[in-house]
Amino acid sequence: MRDLSGERNILLGCMAMGMTREQAVARRDWIVEFADLGDFISLPMTAYSSGMAARLRFAIAASMSHEILMIDEALATGDAEFRRRSEKRIMQLRDEAGTVFLVSHSLGVVRMTCNRAIWLEKGKVVMDGEANEVVDAYEEMYDPEQEALERKRTRARRRRQRGGLTKAQR
């Protein structure tokens, strides 16, 4: 809640996940340290950058183990050190939890974190399987070198259709 302090958001967020007030208070220091907010924790979240707010939300969600945990692009924000801490925590949660759903455009994160991946394209399942196989297929489909080669072939095909004339020659 943007008008409330980070401190108050920790309490409310933890209680919304089912923690008691005492459990939330006990996890407070871990959350503040993980999110790397220091003295900012007492300020309203309107004073936070988008990265600070994302780090706090992730830290609250990661402060306890879950049977099912859904993480949507959480690792897309923050500096390299925060991403490393987040990736490590996700691995711990994956080992502790029943299921972790990770939404990510980072293929490296998918390879490192997931044992199964689902590739969605415009709301449709393109592939569902072992993470490395799905990422390999995705990379093959969207390989920039392959795309450049296909564009070159398309231009050559169009030139042949126009009788070999380039734009400058017409």
Protein model, in words:
The radius of gyration is 23 Å and the shape is elongated. The protein contains 7 helices and 4 strands. By secondary structure, it is α+β, with helices and mostly antiparallel strands. Helix 1 packs across helix 2 (21-35), helix 1 packs parallel to helix 3 and helix 2 crosses helix 3 (50-61). The strands form 2 sheets. It has a two-stranded parallel ribbon.
Which helices and strands, and how do they pair?
Layout: H1 6-16, H2 21-35, H3 50-61, E1 68-72, H4 80-96, E2 99-103, H5 107-113, E3 116-121, E4 124-130, H6 131-141, H7 144-161
Parallel strand pairs: 1-2
Antiparallel strand pairs: 3-4
Brief synopsis:
By secondary structure, this protein is α+β, with helices and mostly antiparallel strands. It has 7 helices and 4 strands. The protein is elongated, with a radius of gyration of 23 Å.
**Cα radius of gyration in angstroms:** 23 Å
Straight-line N-to-C gap: 62 Å
**Number of β-strand runs:** 4
> Which stretches are poorly predicted, pLDDT < 50 over at least 5 residues?
none
